What does this fold into?
Amino acid sequence: MTEKKRERGYSGFLMRQRAFLKLYLITYAEESGSYGFQALGLLKDKFKQFGFKPQHSEIYRALHELMEEDILKRKKAPKDDAKYQEIAVYYIHDRERAKAYKRLVKADLDRCMGILHTAIRDNY
Amino acid sequence: MTEKKRERGYSGFLMRQRAFLKLYLITYAEESGSYGFQALGLLKDKFKQFGFKPQHSEIYRALHELMEEDILKRKKAPKDDAKYQEIAVYYIHDRERAKAYKRLVKADLDRCMGILHTAIRDNY
DNA sequence: ACATGAACAGTCTGTTCATCC
DNA sequence: GGATGAACAGACTGTTCATGT
It folds into this structure.
């Protein structure tokens, strides 16, 4: 009942970037408290080889959504190194919800792989 | 030089539906003269299992683009079976351009597979 | 119902602007 | 420059309307 989106105006082609980023942000939060700007850097590095360069605003929107969905929570904290700058560190809030969301995205990832694989088989 | 799109407003996440459909429409045109409504049915059937249901307008837009790009040409023709209804049958216009476009999309398909595979490896 | 096309409309997301350390 | 957030703006595409067989 929590996930009811994607009824109107969606034909079911490949998944949205938002969901993809949320998956990584949950994983990062599981591993250790992470924050937006850091995740952005990690993801940019990781996907550079694929020509995918996520934007900062999309990361923040994804984090905000994960909070609205009670999957993550955050604390404002001073940054480790010297400077007094405040960062927003994210943690898992509801582990069950997090797991459920990841299951959902896994199914979507598999679905997308199926679509792409079918196209390669059919057209080459 | 023909394909110069995707400079502004594109961060390089997964490919667009339009390109995906154009790939199939080229292949269908290679195999035999095909027309929009027929292709729509074939693709709906094929991807139903993946929850992907392409819309007719997107098919037609894709076909129109392929003509603008001089990859396909079309003839208006009466339908085979009885009825007098006229259909727009598409053929390959420039075989080289068609091949080039398919090569481009192949690279994009591989790129997308890489992104998805990376996410599965990293998060599960 | 088959078939094509175009206008309309809304979502996703990239760019820009703003703020603070 | 690091860090976050929000406003602005445009592309993609789904829905609807139109037209005819």
Observations:
- The first helix of chain A runs from residue 17 to 31.
